[in-house]
Amino acid sequence: MFYREAGDFKTSYAADNQTFPIRLDRYRYLAVLFAAFAVIPFVIDDYWANAIFVPFLIYAIAAIGLNILVGYCGQLSLGTGGFMAVGAYACYKLMTAFPDVNIVLHILGAGFVTAAVGVLFGLPSLRIKGFYLAVATLAAQFFLVWLFNKVPWFYNYSASGQINAPERTVAGIPVTGPNTEAWAQYLICLVFVVVLAWMARNLTRGTVGRSWMAIRDMDIAAEIIGVNPLKAKLTAFAVSSFYIGIAGALFFAVYLGAVEVGEAFGIQKSFLVLFMIIIGGLGSIFGSFAGAAFMVLLPVLLKNLLVGGMGWPTDLTAHLQLMIVGALIIVFLIAEPHGLAQLWRIGKEKLRLWPFPH
Amino acid sequence: MKLKLASIALGAALAAGPALADLVFPDLSYRTGPYAAGGIPFSDGYQDYFTLVNERDGGIGGVPARVIECETGYNTEKGVECYEATKGEGALIYQPLSTGITYQLIPKVSADGIPLHTMGYGRTSAANGKVFEWVFNYPANYWNAASVAIKYLLDESGGDLGDKKIALLYHNSAYGKEPIRTLEGLSAKHGFDLTTIAVDHPGQEQKSQWLQIRRERPDYVIMWGWGVMNQVAIQEAANIRFPMENFIGNWWAGAEHDVTPAGMAADGYKALNMNRIADLPVFDDIRTYVADKGMAAGDGSNIGKVLYTRGMYAAMLAVEAAKTAQEIHGTPDITAAMMRDGMEALVMDAAKMEALGAPGIGPEFGVTCADHGGSGMGILQQWNAGEGKWVALTDYISPDDAIIDPLVEEDSMAFAAENGIDLRCD
């Protein structure tokens, strides 16, 4: 009944290959975009921006980045936190060194710096695979955090070792610093998310993306049919790190405003983003969004329901939350290893046949 | 759709809290995670004092105080979430008990106009009220603590530290790095040799650091630790037989739960304190009006402990500031801006502390527009493992302002220049 394809004829190659081939899906996508750009900015307040939307959007970028590397190219990485730190510190250094340049360029610059660092740490992937590569990226995680703690140049020799985002504007409207309005904070993240997600979707269905997937599915076979593993793996590391770097820069500059590397970009951040793509669905852009939303919203929701709604003690809730999130991760791994994206896909199949499944 | 459903549920949950005419004091506590051992007694003390004021005095100037607890887990992201969630309730003052969250909140409270009180932690240069309008760190800060510790060591070694080696064992975060600059200044002034040794979060693994201490044989070790790091450090010091009386923790590394895991081996460990620990009359009131009625925030077992006392002291200072604000503005229903005026006019003298049932709990100090830092005095205390209690070794020692004042001036001016702040109080 829903998602009917009857009467939805495709007459060209482009129409047949569009991202949302079903009409209802396409309208839904446009409706979401409309709501995101034209409704939410007018109703958002500080709490919704800082507790829900901004972290969700930033984690979505990081999850898309990691999904490109892990989900599309099959290279396991535990260095996400470290690469986010590279993005944050690159953004900070650029912001303070060139205060007159637009912040958007700094954030993009931070992405490129992170891409270069990512390629460097991606080099071992040409020799080692699977768990061994995960351990190599783990080394990157610890090395990068240590580096930003150790070398005072990175934090401009401040007494506390913290980096603080000064106020920067886009078209005269502050987007970083304490005087940022909630909607400005939200919109700058949204613009980055939409552009990057659109780019990721198109990259993954083009030549580059197909070579990544070939490497993921079987690297030797891919090499035999003419995919250059050096190029495929390193582009995956570069693009993935670019995304993660931008997420790190936004996380520092727009979301938190002040960051301490060990606390904000530690190993737990790497695992958090990895959980997002596992729960959301490996190799799926929608899955990245779903996973980010799940991991950001669930703790806030549980807290508000249990503490705010039912008046439970805060420590009990915090512990329960750990247990619930942990249990859900296990349930997902067992019941639906392909994540929320697969559930969505199955749901759509069912809806197409409903109410006559036979 | 999932998102929308979640948002609706969330909105409903948010709207549930009733709005009453009362004075709101958010408590950004942490009762979970590696720092919970310190967070629990502090939060218990903080909340119990407000309960006491409500039960015994009928509130502050007749208006009941309402505490909203929010769990941060010592995590800055959750701290920001807690801040945003509670500020709309009419929060009068924030005391996050975390230097990381403090750095996060300084720009936010300055923009929103809500006072932030970081008692003995946070950004040290916030003591300069000319720059930091909304941030207070009376009665003392980290740089005071470093200076007090060195002053005590100077006294102990006959006024000369020229041939001594001092190691700083610190939590590798904004918190732990704060004293380094002061210690470097003091090292240049007094000629002692300073080594800094970092311990990464959360600090459960310190074998290599203590190996380094064993190799370099410093005369004294000063520790800037918090949470599980303290217990581990004291145990490791005992393991390498480092003389405990030469091991000095700062005031966040000197509570009962830090030393008890090492048992008798911790005997003689020293720590700074910014408030006195004694069996104060106010504890009897808390037992009568709060704990015995089953209204205590915790199980009541923490009453009188070091961090409980400090949390209660923090609440006491907030209540006194609120009373001062009510007097200044002549209304019991104060706003956050009025609260700030009250904090800036706060005077804590011996008579007032006596009247509050807490004689000598802290040093005497007064806050002014330019000076948000208080007197900066601290005491030294030593752990007596046999009797299981802390013993005060000294009276309040005043810090070396000749070193600290220029540093505060330099750091706060740099902040003012970076953020385009005009100086106040002239």
UniProtKB/TrEMBL annotation, chain A:
CDD domains: TM_PBP1_LivM_like. GO terms for molecular function: branched-chain amino acid transmembrane transporter activity. It is a multi-pass membrane protein. PANTHER family: ABC TRANSPORTER PERMEASE PROTEIN, HIGH-AFFINITY BRANCHED-CHAIN AMINO ACID TRANSPORT SYSTEM PERMEASE. Keywords: Cell membrane, Membrane, Transmembrane, Transmembrane helix. The keyword Transcription does not apply. Its main location: membrane. The keyword Membrane applies. Pfam families: BPD_transp_2. The chain crosses the membrane at residues 27-44, 50-69, 76-95, 101-123, 130-148, 183-200, 236-259, 271-298, 318-335. This is Amino acid/amide ABC transporter membrane protein 2 (HAAT family). One of its GO terms (cellular component) is plasma membrane. It is found in: Cell membrane. InterPro entries: ABC_transp_permease, LivM-like.
UniProtKB/TrEMBL annotation, chain B:
It comes from the Bacteria. SUPFAM superfamilies: Periplasmic binding protein-like I. Residues 28-385 form the Leucine-binding protein domain. InterPro entries: Leu-bd, Peripla_BP_I. Residues 1-21 form the signal peptide. Coiled coil: none annotated. Transmembrane segments: none annotated. It holds the Pfam family Peripla_BP_6. Keywords: Signal. Belongs to the leucine-binding protein family. This is Amino acid/amide ABC transporter substrate-binding protein (HAAT family).
